[in-house]
Amino acid sequence: MPPGLSPADPPAGAPRARERRQRVQAVQTGMSVLKGLARLGGRASLTAIAQHVGESPAKVHRYLVSLIEAELVSQDAASQQYSLGAAAIDVGLAAMRQVEPIRCAEGALQRLREELEVTCFVAVMGNMGPTIVRFEEPALPVTVNVRAGSVLPLLWSATGRAFLAYAGDARVQARAQAELAQAGPGRRALLDAADPIGALRRQVRAAGCASVRDANLAGISAVAAPLFDYNGRTVAVLTALGATGGFDPQPDGTVARAVRREAAAISGALGYRQEDPPASPAGRASTAPRAG
Q1: Which of 9, 63, 165, 180 could form a disulfide with 201 if both were Cys (CB 3.0 to 4.6 A apart)?
Q2: CATH class (in words) of the domain with range 98-269
Q3: What is the pTM of this model?
């Protein structure tokens, strides 16, 4: 023990360590308040924020004052409600610019390929229809005539059906009607006779994924699930496919569960929250089941 220091005396660095811990705790509490406000929709009363973060209104108010000074929060003079400030919006926009569905899906593609030994890809809605933009194959790939850049049909591919069920673009619905008009009797027999497109959309939304067996390519089955952004819009579709003989496309099967799980994780990375229903095909919120 250093000379002159009794056992009751605290170490010389103790006050600084305590101050450091207090600063860290203050930052954590401040971020908790800010994130609580964001989760409440970006606008809420002091009471609602305090209840959400589990702190007293007086304590939360002190942190809100500091957040207002940093322009992370603002307060409406008339309603006294708090909302996200300009600086918080700038941070959010910068984060969203870094989020891109193809990049977010890379890990999921690799996991699906390795765990299930299936071919998998991500597609986006292009000018000509659902277009594959990222493609992964297992060590022993299934021979299919699709690659990055391939355009898939809406009615006969799992990828297209996932877009059809969730996308709000009227052009998607019009393209599906055109495909239906051009379909022969054999393909039409795969769909509901009374309401072919409507029944297909309801079926996919009820399962949270689209499944096909030999509908698009003979001997090939597939499962696809939508990827949602922070607004609940369908920005891409994640698909796994394989030879029909060894591939289970059932909505409650191993492949479908894995695809829905990975799609839900990607959607979360894109800012989508499960408590917020995705946009319906008509552009309105829907309470139908979602991916994951």
Answers
A1: 165
A2: alpha beta
A3: 0.64
Please name the residues in contact with 195: beta carbons below 8 A apart, sequence gap of 6 or more: none
Chain position carrying tokens 């990975």: 262
User: Closest Cα to residue 229, out of 132, 134, 131, 97?
Assistant: 97
pLDDT at 18: 72
Residues 81, 151: Cα–Cα separation, whole Å: 49
Please tell me the predicted confidence (pLDDT) of residue 150: 82
Cα 118 from Cα 222, distance rounded (Å): 10
Per the listing, tokens 């894995």 go with: 258
Residue partners of 53: CB distance under 8 A and separation at least 6: 32, 33, 36, 60
Helix (H) or strand (E) holding 179: helix 170-182
Q: Is the pLDDT of residue 156 over 50?
A: yes
Residue (of 174, 121, 112, 118) closest to 151 by Cα position = 121
- Domain positions in the chain are 14-88, 98-269
Residue 125: phi, psi to the nearest 5?
-85, 110
- pLDDT of 213 above 50: yes
Tokens representing 163 are 């877009």
Q: Which CATH class is domain 14-88?
A: mainly alpha
- Burial of 268 by CB count in 10 Å (0-12 exposed, 13-18 middle, 19+ buried)? middle
Give the model confidence (pLDDT) of 64-100 as tens digits: 999 999 899 999 888 999 998 888 877 776 665 555 7
Selection from 261, 51, 267, 52 nearest residue 276 by Cα: 267
Spatial separation of the C-alpha atoms in residues 255 and 259, rounded to whole Å: 6
Residue type, 54: G
Q: Report whether pLDDT(104) > 80.
A: yes
